[in-house]
Design a protein that fits this description.
about 575 residues; alpha/beta
């Protein structure tokens, strides 16, 4: 691989932890290492660590949620027909399942439609409105995980006499759709303290508000109201899989969902996905949701049609759920093979791309699959540490791109700048700071590459293209234990609240290459020896090293031992 695009040498850096706040948490009963980890992640009060449902931010703080609850309660009373229009990723699928199950619990007549991404693209388009009316004849469309950018689609629904309730979490453009009501923590003037709710979290909040409205109307009381907490396994799965920041509010939703999974109180489809992934729900972690369960569900939307993913989450038939989970597993294997093939092709293309000072990457291939380009962009971003957009053919003279970014480079805002610098170049775009999608003309790739690179050069300093391996510093010797690892695994870590990575200096006792791809190491510190493995590396290391690592409980032949999973190594002068 050409070195021209390789990220500069990574640097190990220790997160600052506030001693006073850490000590206060410790004095209130928090484990001393956890207290240090939490304050390094911005937690300063014990209340921010609550995982109880009564600590959730009140739904009333979401703009227009009372109006949405009143409107939906009226619709239920009038027996109006609702249809959920879902998105085709894991957040969209779980939001749809939560919406279907929750609205039905509350008395609604509701169905769903999930458009095929390859035919209809993203969001509530006029074509999807026409399809929805033709197939289900609804009075009301409820969007989940989409709709905030669907100005034309909502206008088409209004023209056809269909009301639209938008529930979304994506960033809005300057103009909002003319929907009956919009619930989105990121819409203008919404004072909801957590802007990080996933689409499934927004839908769950709408259900909480609707149930409260129905209680006020005397439809239910506290003793006989539907138990919406039964939906929290789905809320946790969608929240983790959508890689939204796990702030205090999202951590409660995820912790409660994990609690249900560990107790065996999960929906048949979630249980089947754990089983097909070879993971144990009794010890469920956010890692399981993000890297085992979520990708299998996402594979449906990437490779085929998210209908089977939603059916997996909405069936109560364990046998049917298991059949679908196996189909999803096969689609995930197909997705992984396609991804590997595309990644190899991308690396070959980049090998010919001689641009030493490039701050961004854009890659296109005629043979690529629309459903997988986002994952390939993510892999390339990780490898080269630059904002990356991969494009695939989109039909009708367009190519569709999916981008992933690095900290400090807001991808959606960058695309907005490109659209202002070169009007008409981008047909449509949307997304977040770290991920976005767009459509451009098939002949406009070179123009886009140049415009995107110009924005990159304007916004990115050279230091931002240097990968920083953030760690929690030294771990005291007496915490290299299986018990401590289990304590860490019981916490909620994830996006914006990263799992602990420690760093320390070790003496290298031995090293050998496994399967021609991985380094198996024996490290020593203070007379204690530790097994370690560095996946994907075969470097020849010096006698003294500084290692950034995560702790892992490695079970072999019935014995569980501590193993260090290496994130990065720096050689030290002897």
């Amino acid at each position: 691989m050409s070195n021209n695009l390789a990220a500069k040498t990574s640097q190990i850096r220790t997160r600052p932890s506030l001693f006073r706040e850490s000590e206060m948490l410790r004095q209130q009963g928090v484990h001393p290492v956890l207290a240090r980890l939490y304050t390094a992640r911005g937690v300063t009060k014990l209340s921010e660590l609550s995982s109880e449902l009564n600590a959730l931010i009140s739904p009333k703080q979401l703009l227009h949620i009372d109006a949405a609850a009143a409107y939906l309660a009226d619709a239920i009373a009038a027996n109006k027909k609702m249809v959920i229009v879902a998105d085709y990723d894991c957040d969209g699928a779980t939001a749809c399942a939560v919406g279907l199950r929750g609205l039905r619990m509350l008395g609604a007549q509701v169905d769903y439609i999930v458009p095929n991404r390859f035919e209809y693209g993203y969001g509530l388009t006029p074509e999807i409105v026409e399809l929805t009316q033709r197939t289900t004849s609804p009075d009301i469309i409820v969007t989940v995980d989409n709709g905030i950018a669907s100005i034309e689609g909502v206008a088409e629904a209004n023209k056809r006499g269909i009301d639209v309730v938008v529930t979304d979490h994506h960033l809005p453009a300057a103009t909002l759709p003319d929907a009956r009501v919009i619930v989105n923590p990121n819409q203008p003037e919404c004072g909801f303290p957590s802007k990080n709710l996933a689409g499934v979290g927004v839908m769950f909040y709408v259900l909480l508000a609707l149930r409260a409205e129905l209680r006020n109307r005397g439809v239910f009381d506290v003793s006989n109201q539907p138990k919406l907490d039964t939906l929290l396994d789905l809320v946790a799965l969608g929240t983790v899989a959508d890689v939204v920041k796990l702030d205090a509010n999202n951590r409660i939703l995820v912790a409660q969902g994990l609690k249900r999974m560990r107790a065996g109180k999960m929906h048949a489809g979630v249980a089947a996905l754990f089983r097909v992934a070879g993971r144990n729900p009794n010890t469920a972690t956010p890692f399981d949701l993000g890297f085992a369960v979520g990708p299998r569900l996402n594979a449906a939307g990437r490779m085929d049609d998210m209908k089977i993913g939603i059916e997996c989450l909405t069936t109560d038939d364990e046998g049917r759920a298991w059949d679908i989970a196996q189909q999803l597993n096969n689609l995930n294997l197909e997705r992984r093979a396609k991804e590997a093939e595309m990644q190899d092709a991308a690396l070959l293309l980049l090998d010919q791309f001689e641009a030493q000072d490039s701050t961004t990457l854009c890659v296109f291939d005629e043979s690529w699959h629309q459903g997988v380009i986002g994952i390939v962009a993510s892999r390339l971003k990780d490898k080269f540490y630059r904002p990356t957009i991969t494009f695939a053919p989109g039909g009708d003279g367009v190519i569709k791109g999916s981008g992933r970014s690095i900290p400090g480079f807001h991808l959606r805002d960058a695309l907005d700048l490109v659209s202002k610098h070169v009007p008409g170049l981008i047909h449509k775009f949307g997304g977040h700071a770290m991920a976005a999608g767009l459509t451009i003309g098939a002949n406009d790739l070179a123009t886009f590459q140049a415009a995107f690179e110009q924005v990159g050069k304007h916004l990115l300093e050279p230091a931002q293209l240097e990968r920083i391996v953030e760690t929690d510093g030294i771990l005291e010797d007496n915490y290299y234990t299986v018990d401590f690892i289990h304590l860490l695994e019981q916490q909620v870590w994830g996006q914006g609240f990263p799992a602990p990575t420690f760093s320390d200096e070790f003496r290298l006792i031995s090293q050998r290459v496994l399967k021609e791809r991985h380094l198996k190491l024996m490290l020593e510190k203070n007379g204690q020896r530790y097994d370690a493995i560095w996946f994907g590396h075969t470097d020849n290391l010096p006698a003294r090293v500084k290692v950034a690592f995560r702790l892992d409980a490695n079970e072999y032949n019935g014995v569980t031992r501590v193993q260090l999973l290496v994130e990065h190594i720096e050689g030290l002068d002897n």
